[in-house]
Amino acid sequence: MKLFRPFNVVVDFETGNLTPGKKITRYLSDIQHFFLDKEKVKAVLAKENPLVYEVIYAEVPEEPGHLAHCTTIIYPGKVGNEFFFTKGHLHEKLETAEIYFTLKGQGRLIMASPDGEECEVLEMFPGSASYIPPSWSHRSVNVGGEPLIFYCIFFADAGHDYATIDKTGFPKVVLERNGEVVVENNPNW
Ligand code: F6R
Ligand code: ZN
Questions:
Q1: Strands in the chain per DSSP E
Q2: Of ligand 1's atoms, which has the minimum distance to the CA of residue 158?
Q3: To test the ligand 1 pocket, which listed residue (24, 33, 72, 90) has its Cβ within 8 A of the most ligand atoms?
Q4: What is the pLDDT of residues 58-94, one digit of tens each?
Q5: Which of 63, 73, 101, 175 has the most CB atoms lying inside 10 A of its own CB?
Q6: Domain contains 95
């Protein structure tokens, strides 16, 4: 039997950098269709295309038995009064759970059952270890003025289903109203 060799990666709690790692970047243009205020999105994109978040993966085989892990850095920002967030997804293997451990910043983790009938929102803050049970879709939102940085561990063969969320979005949205962070029903749900 060929053994996979143990290895370290190093996570910088301040920047979220994970080394050695493989980075993916998501810009506003990649997630523009999710925001409520279409006119505001257009206006922002006419001027610039801000970096919304980055994910840095440790290189692990996408095979049963392995644990994938990565950091996510969501930059602070809003479109209108709606905070920056990740695309969000279901795992293709619905039966696989995940843990998000927050290193820096303030966020909200929106989770929904596959039919969207159930929805829960957890606070993310330094030291919070949020458990995403099997079958719950998940999206994270930066509600603070600094980067939201969290470390994720999930089954390496879980797979990511983005198509379902592309069609439906999430049942809840996270907005700023009068300087407060509020969670509201998604009017387009
Ligand atoms: C992996 C996972 C996270 C996210 C990352 C970016 O299963 O949940 O590592 O992939 O926070 O979010 P998405 O993948 O929704 O763009
Ligand atoms: Zn996930």
A1: 10-11, 18-19, 22-27, 51-57, 67-74, 78-79, 82-83, 90-91, 98-104, 107-112, 119-124, 129-132, 137-142, 148-155, 160-161, 172-177, 180-185
A2: 7
A3: 72
A4: 999 999 999 999 999 999 999 999 999 999 999 999 9
A5: 73
A6: yes
